[in-house]
Structures are given as C-alpha cells and as structure tokens.
Specification:
The protein is mainly α. Helices cover about 80% and strands about 0% of the residues. It has one domain: Up-down Bundle (Growth Hormone, Chain: A), CATH 1.20.1250.20.
Length: about 375
C-alpha cells in the first residue's frame, strides 16, 4: 500500500512546477487558472463523506481500486488537453480518484495501530508517500523542458496505472479489509458532524480547511506564478523549490510523528502554523532563487508538522468505530479549502498583487494557531 501511495504521489507532483503556467497558456483568465487547481477538490467535496461512510460499512479495498482506476482516466484526460476545460475536467476526475484511495488507506492505518503508536506509523507512511512528491516535482520540471507539458501528464498516467496494478493484485490489503455492519451508515455520519458540542472535532475540521486553503491557493498556485512571471525563475528551478519543500515535509512527517506521540498533537500543530506563517511572510522579503530554495525547506517542514499531527489528533477525538465517517468529513473540509483557496487568492492576486496576497495568507495561519490552542487533547487506546 505504501509503494502504491509513493507512485501516486509522484504522479501528482510531476506537474507541480508548471500546472498554473500551463493553464495560463491555455487561457489567460485568472478565474479559470484558479479553477484548474480547484477542480482537483471540487468533485471530492461531494464524495468524501459518502466514501468514508461506505468504507466503514462495506470495507476499504473496492474503494481503493476504484479510486486508482478513476485517477488513471483523469490523468490521461490532462495529457490530451488542448483547451483549459478539458484540463479542468481531467483534474477533477483525478482528484476524485485520489480521494477514494487516500481516505481508505488512512482508515486502514488507524485500524491497524493503537493511539500510542499511531503518530509514528502515520509519519512513516506519509514520509514514504512524500518521497514520491520529492522525486516527482524536479523530474516533472525537467521533463516539461525536454518533452512538453502534455507528455508529462502521460508519464503520470503510467505511474498511476502501476499503482492500480499493485493494489488490485494485493492479497494483503484484501485481508486487512474491515467492515462495520453493526449500525446504519447514517449513524457514522451524525456522530462526527461539527458542532459546539464536538468542539475538538470542529477545530480539527476548520484547521483541515485552512491548511489546504493556503497550500493549494498560495504554495501551488500563486507562488509558481509569482516566481515565474514576476521574478523570472524557470519551471526547472521552480521544480527544485517544490522538491526542497517536499524534503521538509518528509523530514517533518517522520520526526513530528515520534515527537507528537511524546508531547501531544496540539503543540506540534501550533508550532507548524507559526512557522508556516513566518515562511509566507518571508516570501515578500526576498527575490532570489537561493532564498526561495531555503524557504521552501522551512515551509515544507511546517506543513509536515501540521499534517501528521492533525490527522492523528482527528483519530483521537473521533469515536473509533466511526473513523471512516470522521475522516470523510475532515477531508471534505480539506477539499473545500483546496477548492476555494486558488480561486479567492487568484482574485486577490489580480486585484492587489503578490505581496498583499501572501500577507493575507500569513494572517490566516496565525488565526489557525489561536484556534488550535482551544483544543483539549484526549487519547484513546484504539
């Protein structure tokens, strides 16, 4: 399962250095360029919760296989895009497929490990995943120069197909499949909804929203445009910056998993938001490739601190028997952030420019640090 995730993450990151640049070549509309990034999350908004509930009710394996098959088709559509609307459609289907895969793989991990070891297990698993992103980003940047943007998407299609074959033939994943047939799917959904009575869960969901709101809106959309169009940094060098960011994510996911098992999830999440806010503000102070290369490492580390600890915190504040539903809601908030972030930040970018956009993102992260401080940690052994 980890190797399949590695291949899938690599396929996703191949276009990280040039996606908004390619989109702008197809159409100059800032709204449509933002929608290319947002489309990844649009279809997922309506399917994450049903997927989580279905995973609780009927098992994980079939959803994983279906998700990878859908991802293959979506990536192939992107490789054929000559107008921006085909690119948007391909990204939407690809994003939906990855959602089905990752929601089930996360739930399987939570089923296998107790709370005391869950941070280390998830950190190690995500570290393996993000090595794929680390390798894919610079490779995609160089392939875009040697080949062209569309052929890079074709390489992604091949990698995802390899992941599909691995999961489809895996007997181990089939043996680990879990079904909860004790209650109706609606119970799984109702007991995980955000509310003032479930304050801890609600804050985790809000953090999930703003984490991807910033990541997709700023790091994946505004920053490549700023680096390429305003600072004149090529897509090959942008790929290296993205790769350095992924090194930070990899290191942090492994390290923070171990540390958060000792000191708790909340301190790691707060520190992550504070560090990321400093990095985004620092982007407004420097103008050279070397500076952005170093800042990419620091920003990636902050993102890794948040990601691993936030997901494990979710598992600890949600009822064990309804984790599929909780993960579905969590990922729906994540998708809403990923969908709205690029569109809203592109509007701000077009109206005010890059620096005000980055400062707005910085303030948003600081607000999340404050909200996280209100969470009361609780651990269960399951």
């Amino acid at each position: 399962m980890a190797f399949a995730a590695f291949m899938l993450l690599m396929s996703m990151s191949l276009s990280a250095a040039f996606l908004p640049i390619f989109a702008q070549e197809l159409d100059q509309s800032g709204l449509l360029v933002g929608l290319v990034s947002s489309a990844w999350f649009l279809s997922r908004i309506f399917t994450e919760i049903p997927s989580g509930v279905i995973a609780d009710r009927f098992g994980r394996y079939k959803l994983m296989v279906s998700g990878l098959a859908l991802s293959v088709f979506g990536a192939f559509l992107c490789s054929m895009a000559s107008i921006i609307y085909v690119l948007i459609l391909g990204r939407a289907l690809w994003g939906l497929g990855t959602a089905l895969f990752f929601i089930t793989s996360s739930t399987i991990l939570f089923d296998l490990f107790k709370s005391s070891k869950r941070g280390r297990a998830l950190g190690t698993y995500q570290g393996i995943e993000f090595i794929g992103s680390f390798l894919g980003a610079p490779l995609g940047g160089y392939l875009a120069i040697i080949l062209d943007y569309r052929r890079v998407f074709l390489v992604s299609t091949i990698l995802i197909f390899c992941s599909f074959i691995i999961v489809f033939l895996s007997k181990g994943i089939k043996r680990k499949d879990v079904k909860n047939i004790g209650e109706s799917p609606l119970s799984s959904f109702k007991k995980c909804l955000p509310s003032l009575k479930r304050w801890n869960l609600t804050i985790v969901y809000i953090n999930s929203f703003f984490r991807t709101f910033i990541m997709v809106g700023i790091s994946n959309t505004i920053l490549p445009l700023y680096l390429n169009l305003q600072l004149g940094i090529g897509v090959d060098l942008i790929g290296l910056i993205v790769s350095m960011r992924m090194i930070g994510v990899i290191i942090a996911t492994v390290v923070s998993g171990y540390i958060s098992d000792k000191i708790g999830r909340k301190p790691m999440i707060i520190l992550g938001f504070l560090l990321q806010s400093c990095c985004l503000y620092a982007y407004t102070l420097f103008y050279t490739f070397d500076a952005f290369f170093a800042l990419g490492l620091a920003e990636g580390f902050s993102r890794g601190m948040i990601l691993t600890s936030l997901v494990v915190l979710l598992s600890e504040v949600s009822p064990p028997e309804y984790r599929g539903g909780a993960i579905g809601i969590y990922r729906t908030f994540m998708d809403l952030g990923g969908f709205t972030g690029p569109i809203l930040f592109m509007v701000v970018y077009d109206l005010l420019g890059s620096h005000p956009t980055l400062i707005l993102a910085t303030a948003t992260l600081l607000l999340n640090a404050v909200l996280t401080a209100s969470v009361r940690e609780q651990r269960n052994s399951k």
